[in-house]
What does this fold into?
Amino acid sequence: MEHPENDDKYTGLTVNSGVVQPPSVNPYLNKRPRRKPLPTASELVEGILKGDVTALSRAVTLVESLAHDHYALAQEVIDKCLPHSGNSRRIGITGVPGAGKSTSIDVFGLHVLREGGKLAVLAIDPSSERTKGSILGDKTRMEKLAVHPSAFIRPSPSAGSLGGVARKTRETIVLCEAAGYNNIFVETVGVGQSETAVHSMVDFFLLIQIAGAGDELQGIKRGIMEMADGIVINKADGDNIGPAQLAQAQFRSALHLFPPTASGWRPEVLTYSGYYELGIPEVWDMIDRYFAFVKANGYFDTKRREQARWWMYETIDEQLRKHFYDNPDIAARLAAAEADVLANHRSSFAAAADVLNHYFDSKML
Ligand code: GDP
It folds into this structure.
């Protein structure tokens, strides 16, 4: 519709020309680079070796990234950091949700940092919604460490295959060590398979338990107990001291039934309270004794070498699977094969052989 103001014969109020308004969109916006350019591997490594947390965080983000060009750069950074890594105590910490891992890591961490040095807290939790990129979540879980200048807290790489998530954490360990972190904690929730992955990247595996109603040993996977170098019963405070001690006795007798460990170390069972900070030096004394023991008998180096071999095969497995499943042609054939198998048109073996043959024919020859 016509506006009467625009008519030449209109005698009413008119709008005088005023000050020229600046454009509402910044004209220089386009000229600014949209994203920070990727740093080179040497720049990152230089920063990491100086202990620069920004460089370390950027490198960890690259390790966690799914982008193809990030992968190559991340691998180059890891390769360059490898000669500077290895000089740390790697400690795995597991326990069911509510066992008190966050509370305990906070106090264990502060205890360790009193000796000087630096601490990195990493996590493996492929299933978790909680840790999906939620740095804030993790920082509030460990209040004191979060503000400690010598602590670096990094949540679990976001949900993905366990193998992928675990490999990223393992690579992050290398970066942290190169940046001078001489204590590494790797936390995992003690309910799934992630313990095996954590066990394969740490020197000492600590299982946090709590005294509860009924049989203490129920619901605990035997495998997890077998992996533990130390079992600690948390919340041994107030009225809970008695039940905690009872649980301690039960775990001790259960451990007697297990075969001797490869390290020759006899796993110990202690009680403590993370919340009231009771028994913390004793837990740490156990861990110190373990390190002295395995360094003296050579198991420390043997285990690290075996872990390196394990990771080589893990990485090969993961990359082979990824190469296979990421192939769009294979994905289409798999969908068809799956439908055939579900409809009972073909046997699972014939369908699998078909898809695999196609893969090998097209990729390997
Ligand atoms: P996480 O899920 O294993 O990380 O466990 P949290 O550290 O979040 O602890 C779970 C709950 O147990 C919280 O409410 C803590 O305050 C409580 N808690 C942790 N450690 C202790 C302890 O030593 N004694 C008591 N009484 N409560 C504790």
